[in-house]
Write a structure and sequence with these properties.
The protein has 452 residues and is of the alpha/beta class. It contains 18 helices and 13 strands. The protein is 45% helix and 15% strand. The model has no long low-confidence stretch (mean pLDDT 92). Bound molecules: uridine-5'-diphosphate. InterPro entries: UDP_glucos_trans, UDP_glycos_trans_CS.
Length: 452
């Protein structure tokens, strides 16, 4: 019997990386289910979390998945507290098992390509070993990709010595630089964006041969976001939203692992209360490190860190959810009218697709770049100002920005209109003859050519 053409995909830890890669696989198979199977080989730190299992359980049967044996969590704690080296180390420690799985796949299937996350690039040599082509599925936008491809040049000329947040000798800088240097070596880069959203960055990438040699093809196939699930049993957040007026609720969430200091958590609580607007807030245990819950999840109950009496006082005004909420279902719900977000790329795209204006509150990584795109270029978000002395965004400022997007003011309505226009443009990009569908089809042909 003829073996089915198979593509192996290797995400790195973190929902912000796993979710878009799974959604990319689903999109590819929605258009090309007769041509391919996809096999996910997932490096892990400890057993998969309930939210990971819930995500995996919804996969269609032509996407196979294997959790690679968990690596020793102590190795990560000892070596670095930052998610970038942690993600890279997790993949690095998983390489022997990954090689075994690829070997098994290549004996059972017609394995043609390895699709890696930017932070899984330590596995790139395996594509050469198995004589298959290699791709990156880049989990942020075209501007961030351009920045990453240019970074080795900046590093050589030392332009970023002052501006980059980490010293040149730090493990974060070294890990990021090494991924940037490997990126041009792949056959192609899949990027989750669309022409209307980032026209200049996409053009620069497609024309930017001088940036890096060799120069892989770039496929802007987005926006790829999860579809809201039609659940038979209604989730607590959705049930609560069902009872709220249209576009009345501000959704507050800092991605899959963003964290704030105790003082900042208190100010958000008081600011939301002061605004008088309805809210649905995903709360985390406070931390001085903004991404402490990213790779290694939190186990404590975060509600106990809210100001005393807050939950009781605001029970008519808001809903507080510990650690995780069904974000896509919330953003797609008609009662949601705004999103206070850390501007992770997936959250950004999900808000755009569902036409929800934002309060941009970037915390780490390329989120500041995304925030500038949303506030200055696209003008679909407002950005709160931190206090000049301690950087904390105070309650009055929070209440002010909440009102700016949630009140029916001219400014709020204009932002809503602009993000709705972007949402419409996203739908066009993904339509039958849209730019992203065409890019996806080019990519599928590439995969198929390799299989002959
Ligand atoms: N997410 C979710 N519920 C939560 C927090 C996050 O479903 O309570 C999902 C969100 O919809 C998005 C992803 O997790 O798809 C977060 O990715 P993003 O790029 O926004 O941020 P990151 O987690 O990488 O910082």
């Amino acid at each position: 019997m003829e073996k089915k053409t198979c593509i192996a995909m290797v995400p790195c830890p973190g929902h912000g990386h796993l979710i878009p890669l799974l959604e990319f696989a689903k999109l590819l198979l929605r258009h090309h289910s007769h041509d391919f199977n996809v096999a996910f080989l997932i490096p892990t730190v400890g057993p998969p979390s309930p939210s990971t299992i819930a995500i995996i359980n919804t996969l269609p049967s032509n996407i196979h998945f294997t959790f690679l044996p968990p690596i020793n969590i102590q190795d990560l704690h000892l070596q670095s507290p930052h998610p970038v080296p942690q993600m890279i180390l997790t993949v690095r420690h998983s390489l022997p098992c990954l090689k075994q799985e690829l070997s098994s796949l290549s004996s059972r299937t017609n394995l043609v390509a390895l699709v890696l996350d930017f932070f899984s690039l330590d596995a790139l040599h395996l594509a050469n070993e198995f004589k298959i082509s290699s791709y990156i599925a880049f989990s942020s936008g075209a501007a961030a990709l351009y920045f990453s491809l240019s970074f080795p040049k900046f590093d050589e000329s030392r332009i970023f010595q002052i501006r980059f947040s980490f010293p040149r000798t730090s493990d974060v800088y070294t890990a990021y630089l090494s991924a940037c240097k490997k990126s041009p070596l792949v056959d192609g880069i899949i990027v989750n964006t669309f022409n209307h959203l980032e026209p200049e960055a996409i053009r620069a990438l497609q024309q930017g041969k001088e940036l890096h040699t060799p120069s892989p093809s770039v496929y802007p196939v987005g926006p790829i976001v999860a579809q809201p699930k039609q659940k038979s049993e209604v989730d607590e957040c959705v049930a609560w939203l069902n009872h709220q007026p249209s576009k009345s609720v501000l959704y507050v969430c800092f991605g899959s692992g963003g964290t704030l200091s105790q003082e900042q958590v208190n100010e958000i609580a008081f600011g939301l209360e002061l605004s008088g607007h309805k809210f649905l807030w995903v709360v985390r245990v406070p931390s001085e490190i903004p991404n402490s819950g990213y790779v290694i999840g939190q186990t404590e109950d975060p509600i106990q860190y809210l100001p005393p009496g807050f939950v009781n006082r605001t029970k008519e005004q808001g809903l507080v959810v510990p650690s995780w909420a069904p974000q896509v279902e919330i953003l797609a719900h008609g009662s949601t009218g705004g999103f206070l977000s850390h501007c992770g790329w997936n959250s950004t795209l999900e808000s755009i697709v569902h036409g929800v204006p934002m309060i941009a509150w970037p915390l780490f990584a390329e989120q500041r770049m995304n925030a500038i795109l949303l506030t200055d270029e696209l003008r679909v978000a407002v950005r709160p100002q931190g206090d000049e002395e301690d950087g904390i965004v105070k309650r009055d400022e929070i209440a002010k920005v909440v009102k700016r997007i949630m009140d029916h003011s001219e400014e709020g309505l204009e932002m809503r209109k602009r993000i709705q226009d972007l949402s419409d443009a996203a739908a066009v990009a993904l339509s039958e003859n849209g730019s992203s569908t065409k890019a996806l089809s080019c990519l599928a042909h590439e995969f198929l050519n390799k299989s002959i």
